[in-house]
From TrEMBL:
Name listed for the protein in its UniProt record: FAD-binding protein
Species this chain originates from: Herbiconiux aconitum
Keywords: Oxidoreductase
Cross-referenced Gene3D superfamilies: 3.30.465.10, 3.30.70.2520, Uridine Diphospho-n-acetylenolpyruvylglucosamine Reductase, domain 2, Vanillyl-alcohol Oxidase, Chain A, domain 4
Keyword Oxidoreductase: yes
Domain FAD-binding PCMH-type: 15-185
Pfam families: ALO (PF04030), FAD_binding_4 (PF01565)
Length: 437
């Protein structure tokens, strides 16, 4: 988001920059003119979305492009259930845009504030062993390249580039259109239950493989996994949404209002954190409901935090989580934010965290007023022992050399970047670190 003084800050307040100039193009042609203008001025150019990345992936020291006016549906292929969207379209707008066509996204993450181009560029994902991240739903896109030209990538044109461009870190150009493979609208039946952590870790395969979408939270210091199991059902199935009062109590009052207060209190008095966590893992669970898919996938998050997430071979999740538990106990840390565990199927995208392997995701968080560095770096050491791949939009310390060892196609992506952007028009310090200058 851009403040009145022209300083851009991300949501987590981990990154800020004052660009040389800010432009708000209202058409694809305007984006092309902005890129050509930046080139003439010798400036780099970056598009920013919602600013929900914790890393500096969207930082734009030169020309910052806000694509808030580049939103909406371009076209709908009813026969193949495909929808083409302008790049600045927000995920929370998609249900409204897809509803008239009886369509929905096949899977979503638990936050829907992002733009579609930002979500695919950072590898945003949800959970479900048979489902990939949002980028795996991309069947085509159009981007403005460093020379200001429009490059279309889909099954008919430049198809060999799609596995790179569908998750391209913003390094190949400005994404102005995205075509998604959608599915018929559906209902999700949600069951949220607290279960013994050791039981869940001991039988994790059965929980993950036995559900369409399974995930769990664990509050450090407790022995409970707050499980969330979502089962897909036809749109014709009668919905049983949460009563308005229960939804307000759970999702607004407890998960955001009271949680904000307890996090702030825990930052001042860490000794209270274990007791608060023990209460939270009971209050944040134990409910059943069903609703339109997007209303179950996404949740409202207003408590500001910092996050690091790594993708691991799915089979390694139990041992890694136990190592994190030992780490927290050995250091006597009081961690008020839960650890989140999710899953995704393998895919063939060059820079996907699930590229070539069935993956489990472990995300650690800290309240934004607490120092996250020691905790995150210690957890990252554990992730490194298991060939963990960091989420591109979440905090990590990896560089081009370490990432090249984790991604077989990293070198191919860098070569494509050299071809499409030899002068590094779309680069910034973060991309120089993870891809090479």
């Amino acid at each position: 988001m851009t403040a009145l003084n022209g300083v851009w800050r991300n949501w987590a307040r981990t990154e800020s920059v004052k660009p040389v100039r800010i432009e708000r193009p209202v058409s694809i042609g305007a984006v092309q003119r902005a890129v050509r203008g930046a080139a003439r001025a010798g400036l780099r150019v970056k598009a920013v979305g919602a600013g929900h990345s914790f890393t500096g992936i969207a930082v734009a020291p030169g020309v910052l492009l806000e694509l808030d006016e580049l939103t909406g549906v371009v076209s709908v292929d009813r026969e193949r259930s495909r929808v083409t969207l302008l790049g600045g379209t927000r995920l929370f707008d998609l249900p409204r845009l897809l509803r008239p066509h009886g369509l929905a996204m096949a899977n979503m993450g638990d936050i829907d504030r992002q733009t579609i181009s930002g979500a695919i560029s950072t590898g945003t994902h949800g959970t479900g062993a048979q489902f990939g991240g949002i980028s795996t739903q991309v069947t085509g896109l159009a981007l403005v390249t460093a020379d200001g030209e429009l490059l279309r990538i889909d099954e008919a044109s430049n198809s060999e580039l799609l596995p790179a461009a569908a998750l391209g870190l913003g390094a190949l150009g400005i994404i102005v259109e995205v075509t998604l493979q959608c599915v018929p609208a559906f209902v999700l039946e949600a069951v949220e239950r607290p279960l013994p952590l050791d039981e869940v870790l001991g039988e994790l395969d059965s929980y993950v493989d036995g559900a369409d979408h399974f995930e769990f939270y664990w509050f450090p210091g407790t022995r409970t996994a707050v499980t969330k199991t979502n089962t897909r059902a036809d749109a014709s199935v009668a919905r049983r949404p949460l009563p308005a009062g229960r939804a307000f109590f759970d999702d607004t009052l407890m998960a955001n209002g009271i949680f904000r207060v307890t996090c702030a209190a825990g930052a001042l008095v860490p000794a209270i954190v274990p007791r608060v966590n023990a209460i939270a893992d009971r209050l944040w669970s134990n409910r059943e409901f069903s609703d339109h898919s997007h209303k179950v996938f996404a949740t409202k998050r207003t408590v500001r935090f910092r996050e690091m997430e790594y993708a691991l071979p799915a089979a390694d999740v139990p041992s890694v989580l136990r190592s994190i538990d030992d780490l927290i106990q050995d250091n006597g840390w009081r961690i008020s934010f839960p650890v989140e565990v999710r899953f995704a199927r393998a895919d063939d995208l060059w820079l996907s965290t699930a590229s070539g392997r069935e993956s489990g995701y472990i995300a650690v968080h800290r309240y934004f007023r607490e120092n996250h560095t020691e905790y995150f770096e210690a957890v990252e050491e554990i992730m490194n022992e298991h060939q963990g791949r960091p989420h591109w939009g979440k905090l990590h310390t990896q560089n081009a050399a370490s990432l090249a060892a984790l991604y077989p196609r990293h070198g191919d992506f860098v070569a494509l970047r050299n071809r499409l952007d030899p002068e590094r028009m779309f680069s910034n310090p973060y991309l120089d670190r993870v891809l090479g200058a």
